[in-house]
Write a structure and sequence with these properties.
The chain has helices at residues 42-55, 76-85, and strands at residues 31-36, 61-66, 88-92. With 95 residues, it is of the alpha/beta class. The protein has a domain at 31-92. It has a three-stranded parallel beta sheet with strand order 2-1-3, with helices on both faces. The longest helix has 14 residues, at 42-55.
């Protein structure tokens, strides 16, 4: 008789390495960052969102970083820069 093996594809839940981030009370005066994964059309969405965040919600400015390719992770140096400069970072995907 053959033996059937059933595998569970679910990953184990890891433990948090830091406390959960607090939500911002407001975007007023905040610097917002966008990490663009370089897929088509995300740049158009980010353009529109940047204008909206500044005009309607009072964000001070928007900083953008575009990855070289969607298939590679963002560079550590870019993450460090965003962490230093931004109050909030939004990552995006287009198509």
């Amino acid at each position: 008789m053959s033996k059937t093996i059933i595998l569970d594809p679910a990953a184990a839940i890891g433990t948090a390495t830091h406390a959960p981030w607090r939500a911002l009370d407001s975007l007023q005066g905040k610097i917002v960052g966008f990490i663009d994964n370089s897929k088509p059309n995300f740049n158009h969405l980010a353009d529109d969102l940047a204008q909206l965040l500044v005009a309607r919600y009072g964000a001070a400015s928007v900083i953008r970083h575009r990855k070289r390719s969607a298939s590679i992770p963002v560079a550590e140096s870019a993450l460090d820069e965003m962490a230093r400069k931004c109050d909030l970072v939004i990552t995006g995907s287009g198509d």
